[in-house]
Amino acid sequence: MKEYTKYRILETIPGLLIWSTFILSIVLSFIKPLWVIYFILIFSIYWLIKIFYLAPYMIYTFYKYKSIERVDWLAKSKAIEKFNSIYHLIVIPTFGEPLEVLRTTFDGLKNLNFPQEKMIVVLGGEEKEKQAFLERAEIIKKEYGDIFHHFMITVHPRDIPGELAGKGSNGRWIGKKAQEYIDQQNIPYEDVIVSNFDSDTMAHTEYFGYLTYKYITSNNPTRQSYQPVPLFNNNIWESPFFIRVASYGTTFWMMSEQVRPERLFTFSSHSMSFRALVDVDFWQADIVSEDSRIFVQCFLEYNGDYKTVPLYLPVSMDAVSGKNWWEAAKAVYKQQRRWAYGAESIPFMMYNFRKAPIPFWKKFKHIFNQLEGMWSWATAPILITILGRLPMWVAGDEIQSTIVFQNAPYVLQWLLSLGMVGLILSAILSTSLLPKRPKAESKHKYLVMILQWVFLPVTMVLFGSFPATDAQTRLMFGKYLGFNVTKKIRKNKS
What we know:
The structure is a single chain. With 494 residues, the protein is of the alpha/beta class. The chain has helices spanning 3-31, 33-68, 73-78, 99-110, 130-144, 167-184, 207-216, 241-258, 274-279, 290-301, 325-340, 345-353, 360-385, 390-394, 397-400, 403-418, 420-432, 445-451, 456-477, and strands at 87-93, 119-126, 150-156, 192-196, 202-203, 224-231, 270-273, 307-316. The protein has a domain at 86-323: Spore Coat Polysaccharide Biosynthesis Protein SpsA, Chain A. Helices cover 57% and strands 10% of the residues. Strands 3-2-1-4-7-6-8-5 form an 8-stranded mixed β-sheet, with helices on both faces. Strand 2 (119-126), helix 5 (130-144) and strand 3 form a beta-alpha-beta unit. The model has no long low-confidence stretch (mean pLDDT 91).
């Protein structure tokens, strides 16, 4: 069998698991409805246990965030001699971002509690919009360039063979150009911490001090990635309710993962050693999910001796938006689909783990966690809210007379009522994580921010199950997804 065929078979596994679950649930609802009722009850109990299991992790992460942000991490870092030799490379790939978005990003860098003279910042654009990008980039350079140790502007050429246009290929080009400068300055790769940021990423004021401290106090800092808590808060007040719920859902999932670093992959904006980045030859340029793939690249490069370290401080980005609700709905769907397309790393791991000298339990753990996570993302909301009711609608008189059938609706209702604990916790945490209310927004908006969580079940189906199923179905059939750039739209100015 050809290697390409082997890989294609592996690419079908996530999608096959999803569709097997859906098809079996529907078919068995007609021929063995009691089996499906038992399955749904067990599955609902499993998810209830999962909610109660993950809730303390979310609360702990929030507690850590609030305690860690009060520390002057720059002062703690400066007390260590190694601090003097450390530089930060900040990679900012862009495509079509408005000038006001870039300005808020650079305002964030300017206002950090960290010396900007230790930062090498690279703003990268695409040749496809070269002229417009260079005009914006020159304005940014004029307004902010002098505050950094070094500021670079790069333009990623279009139509490079083997590349997929997107953040990964642009970031790879930026990284290569930055390497040329770092080599010219004779800066050791081990002394450079690289942060791959989205164009709208605003780091917490203590982020780089905290990151530096974690790096220089680690026994093996080059064998670690550093993952902050992703918030989508920059424009959260002006976003439609369903976008806020979907965005916070991602944040809460990452908060629960922070306390379980053995499961933690890199996601969205994150940091790592430039040494490791060079060793794996930078981000892959032919994939959609370069943010999670870079962890797998390093894990393979170092034969399993690589991990992701949680950083309990947040980086804030824009929630997706649009000119109207319909455009916003399409935008959040495409964003969730792109994130779910991270399932492309599952066949990559299965294929490359075969001969890698990595302990079996480490291989199994990462494959299982990713496979179960992607399967649950696509199936759980639909199973609980829709397919779980099907056998009760189609069962015959004989089945309807059984004790299990008659009590199943009450048990499910009871389980869903207990699951309200998750809704209440989500409402409390989301309100606590909100940025300052813009003057243009009424104080009554706080009430809306709480009540929006009653739409969580619908949001989980429309902007969770559907895009996740879409992404993994495309992978299954080889209809590979391109990189969809999230539009950045700002309305409130204060």
